[in-house]
Design brief:
Layout (H helix, E strand, L loop, with lengths): L1 H6 L3 H14 L4 H14 L2 H14 L4 H13 L3
Length: about 80
């Protein structure tokens, strides 16, 4: 459901749904990754970096998370 919301551009709803999934299962690397992507796409680079970092910590083989994480670092304003 969160992925559908993100695809529709409703990042707030997607972020809420991914956060709910993480609350239910804090060790779900995919949920952290999808939250990070939604945060990144919504422009919240700082929170995206946090979520994507958690995703790769939980699953070091989640290669797409490294790509989005690198982009978030490159695009952050700080």
């Amino acid at each position: 459901m969160g992925s559908k919301k993100a695809a529709e551009g409703d990042f707030a709803a997607a972020i809420e749904q991914f956060r709910s999934a993480i609350t239910a299962d804090p060790n779900n690397a995919s949920a952290h990754f999808l939250l990070g992507v939604a945060l990144h796409d919504s422009g919240d680079r700082k929170e995206a970096i946090h979520s994507l970092g958690r995703a790769v910590a939980l699953d070091p083989h989640l290669t797409q998370a490294y790509v989005v994480l690198g982009n978030a670092y490159l695009e952050q304003d700080d």
